[in-house]
Design goal:
Length: 227
């Protein structure tokens, strides 16, 4: 009876306003040659989905769509692959303007992107976006985020974000690597890594240092203002 009562309470539709902000100070990446570089976020994606969908599996190889988003900063292939897929309610860009390429619309320190998301009360939310000055490092939530938890799941979701290495391209020094998106001659340039998706907690497998997620990013869900 309790389960039926709970089931009856899940709303058919929940709407939240999601805001991703780049909190990094300007020039916060200090490279080994003393040059400074901004933390930039590539255009990301936000997906509302059921419990059968995930953007990636830690410890497994990245999909080609994730590889494209994590290496080159374009989520378009990922958006195309998920649009209309089983278990997916909606897919949208998560960035500060309607551009899908890193070159056109890297989110700089102080900028933010907003997106309204809607789905049934038992839906989940996943986001992913590239850490711009890297070969294949990206931000994403480790576990799908519930849209509703006995109430719209409004609040600060930042602690759910982590940095991940897609395992597809060998890492170079953040801010200097010639095969990283801001400097590579063409999409996909870089040494193939052939690895799996692993969490990056401060230092990657090659010894390069990355900022703490909460020091540079903020992801907040707000309930829309009522009329
Ligand atoms: Ca890598
Ligand atoms: Ca590359």
């Amino acid at each position: 009876m309790v389960a039926l009562w709970l089931l009856g309470c899940v709303p058919d539709e929940v709407t939240l306003n999601l805001k991703l902000a780049n909190l990094a100070p300007e020039g916060s990446i200090i490279a080994s040659d003393s040059s400074t570089h901004d933390v930039k976020f590539a255009p990301g994606l936000v997906v509302v989905h059921d419990d059968t969908v995930s953007l990636f599996t830690p410890g497994a190889a990245a999909s080609p769509e994730l590889e494209s988003a994590a290496e080159d900063g374009s989520p378009q292939a990922f958006i195309d692959a998920l649009t209309g897929a089983d278990g997916v309610y909606s897919v949208a860009l998560l960035t500060h303007e309607d551009e899908v390429t890193y070159e056109a619309a890297a989110m700089l320190p102080g900028q933010d992107g907003r997106r309204q998301i809607t789905g049934p009360g038992d839906a989940f939310v996943s986001v992913a976006f590239m850490f711009g000055e890297s070969n294949d490092v990206f931000f994403a939530n480790a576990e799908p985020l519930p849209l509703w938890q006995k109430g719209a799941n409004a609040g600060d979701w930042t602690s759910s974000l982590a940095l991940w290495d897609a395992g597809t391209e060998r890492n170079q020094e953040p801010g200097l690597g010639p095969d990283q998106a801001p400097r590579q001659a063409a999409a996909g340039d870089g040494e193939v890594e052939g690895g799996v998706i692993t969490a990056v907690e401060g230092v990657d497998a090659n010894g390069y240092v990355y900022p703490g997620v909460a020091d540079v990013a903020s992801l907040v869900a707000e309930a829309p203002a009522t009329e």
